[in-house]
Amino acid sequence: MKSFKESVYQVVRKIPKGETLSYKQVAILIGRPKAYRAVGNVLNKNDDPTVPCHRVIRNNGEIGGFRHGTAKKRQLLKSEKVKI
Questions:
Q1: Catalytic residue among 53, 56, 63, 77
Q2: E-strand spans in the chain?
Q3: What integer is the mean pLDDT of 46-54?
Q4: Left, alpha or beta for 22 (phi > 0: left; psi -120 to 50: alpha)?
Q5: 53 a catalytic residue
């Protein structure tokens, strides 16, 4: 059985370049629909470069937090042609 963290990372690794999912969508995809805050906490501690956590945004369309700062997250999303 996968850990919660591994489940989150597995879903986030599959987000294609140029697309995003919300924290809530990730939580739903791992079968824990109310755990969207926990998804954010897991991603905030991510240091694995194969997990594109910058592609996970808030449900209301705002970019949300990022370990390396919101300016860096915005820059990464823009470089992938994500409309924010």
A1: 53
A2: 21-22, 56-57
A3: 95
A4: beta
A5: yes
